[in-house]
Amino acid sequence: MPGDAERLHVLVADDEPHIGRIIKMKLEQGPFAVTLAYDGREALDALAHDADVALVLLDLMMPHLTGLDVLARMRSDTRWQRLPCIILTAAGQEQHHREAMALGASEFLTKPFSPKKLYARAADLLGVSDDHVSIDAQELRTPKS
Q1: pTM of the predicted protein model
Q2: How far apart are CA 127 and CA 110, in angstroms?
Q3: Helix 94-103 / helix 67-76 crossing angle, nearest 10 deg
Q4: Which domain holds residue 103?
Q5: Looking at the predicted structure, is the pLDDT value of residue 46 above 60?
Q6: Is 65 in contact with 39 (CB distance < 8 Å)?
Q7: Alpha-carbon distance 100 to 104, whole Å?
Q8: At 89, which CATH number?
């Protein structure tokens, strides 16, 4: 498993702590280190204080600032204009999808989503192979001598 310096930093902003924990557990099975934020303001603060964020996952409906508010601010700031961003939402309305994509979202996933699909999309956006996950699983099954 890569050390923290070799891990890709992902910021996950979701006001439902159990969703954040599920995403964190799944992504950290691979080469990702996850920071959790529980509202839009926390997400922007985390971005401002960590220049190493490689990917942002934003829940659409959060207190203080919505995922779309955060995405709009990201795209208006030169530091984060090209940062990949996945929008997660329980409200799969077409209007939200259009707005997110117009603001520059990389992906729009509707809850409930498959953690495996989310992992694959994150890996794809960051150009990561998931070979090491199957290697780790194989090592767990192989008896040590």
Answers
A1: 0.85
A2: 23
A3: 20
A4: 4-141
A5: yes
A6: yes
A7: 6
A8: 3.40.50.2300
Q: Residue type at 4?
A: D
Strand partners, 36: 12
Who has greater pLDDT, 80 or 133?
Answer: 80
When divided into structural domains, the chain yields a total of 1
Number of other residues whose CB lies within 10 A of the CB of residue 7: 18
The tokens of 98 are what? 């259009």
Reading the block at residue 117, the tokens are 């699909």
d(CA 55, CA 34) in angstroms, rounded, equals: 10
Q: How does residue 53 score in pLDDT terms, banded at 50, 70 and 90?
A: very high
CB proximity list for 37: less than 8 A, separation 6 or greater? 11, 12, 13, 43, 45, 46
Q: Which of 4-8, 25-29, 50-54, 102-106 has the lowest mean pLDDT?
A: 4-8
Residue-wise pLDDT for 76-112, tens only, equals 999 999 999 999 988 768 888 999 999 999 999 988 8
